[in-house]
Give the backbone structure.
Amino acid sequence: MGHRMRTAIQYELGGPEVIRIVEADRPEPRAGEVLVHVRAASVNFGETKVRSGVAEVGPPPFTLGSDLSGVVEQVGAGVGDFAPGDQVYGVFLIGTYADYVAVPAVNLARKPAGIDHVQAAALPVAALTALRAAETAGDLRGRRILIHAAAGGVGHLAVQLAKLRGAHVLATARADKHDFLRGLGVDEPIDYTTHDFTQVARDVDVVFDLVGGDYGKRSLESLRPGGLLLGATLHPGVTEQDARDRGRRYTWVSLGTEGRELDRISALVSAGHVRPHIERTFPLTELVQAHELVETGRVTGKVVITL
């Protein structure tokens, strides 16, 4: 006992400045848990909402962070899949902004071969969400899919999965991100600052909405009759009934956190089908600045914290 570590904690809800880096005791893995020495963790847009209190996870104090990549330090009773020294990545809701985290073994998978911890930490929450959306959409061969916020963390992975499945991809993003999107295979980038996407994107089969609010409702106009709207935001702005009233379908995409799904993502990454884009990395000591950047909503790909 007596091992100390750094962890990021907030004692109150608010802006990025409420985050503090403090010393704490290193956790001990319980039965079914794995103690991971964290090498990298990412910042998801949703975590800025938890930090500010827009998304409620219970009262502070708490440590944010949902993704991690690192090395197994110790395993709890009954864990047979992992051993000390294994390189792993996965999801832990919430608390990955720390040097060591005890994570349920079912939430972890072996880190994909050929990528480093920074790239691996960018994947879990975003890639699991994108994979769930692609699978909910069903057969995408030759179908038209519109992805909102396509250059963002979930969006840029959703584009890659949609193209892999044979879709014709339309995507909303600012003009300065269009070259990036074309590089991912987007067929029709749309600048939402100069065009009303509902006028440009017509008769699409599927919309994946990563913006929410007003975008949800407006997206119904882009769908063909019977088309599917997939939502993955805190405030979708639309209900299943709204969609039915317009002769469309709506499904909210929930996150899968099982290690088995992560194994499938690892296979896609190792085969070169999916690649996370990292806009910037920050050390743990600059987590406040990382949150400020992510909160702008202008990040291309992901922001990753290194430990």
Summary: Residues 4-123+276-306 form a domain with the Quinone Oxidoreductase; Chain A, domain 1 fold (CATH 3.90.180.10). The CA atoms of residues 69 and 117 lie 5 Å apart.
